[in-house]
Amino acid sequence: MERYPIARFTDMPGKIDVHVIGSPVPTLPRTGEASPGPAAAALANAVADALGQRLRDMPLSAERVKAAMEG
Question: Which of 32, 48, 57, 68 is at a distance of 20 to 30 A from 7, taking alpha carbons?
Fold first, then answer.
């Protein structure tokens, strides 16, 4: 196992340039379009952890969260 080096943050170069480029296929997700699914799941998990119960309907509105807290 020690023969395979694992890259660490200290191995990273000092500067990383990020370039967002267009896709030749217009149906592929863009940079901002790929994040709502995982972000919504992470938010739902955080609410479930805080409330002790899972809200299964979207959107997670203030009214729904408050109702779950009261009931």
Answer: 32
Q: Is the pLDDT of residue 1 over 60?
A: no
Instruction: Give the integer Cα–Cα distance in Å for 30 and 21.
Output: 9
- In this structure, the dihedral spanned by the alpha carbons of residues 9, 14, 20 and 23, taken in order and rounded to 10 degrees, is -60
pLDDT digits (tens, 9 = 90+) for 12-62: 878 888 888 776 777 666 666 667 778 888 999 999 999 998 998 888 899
Closest CA to 54 of 37, 38, 40, 68: 68
Vertex 60: Cα angle to 57 and 62 (nearest 5)? 135
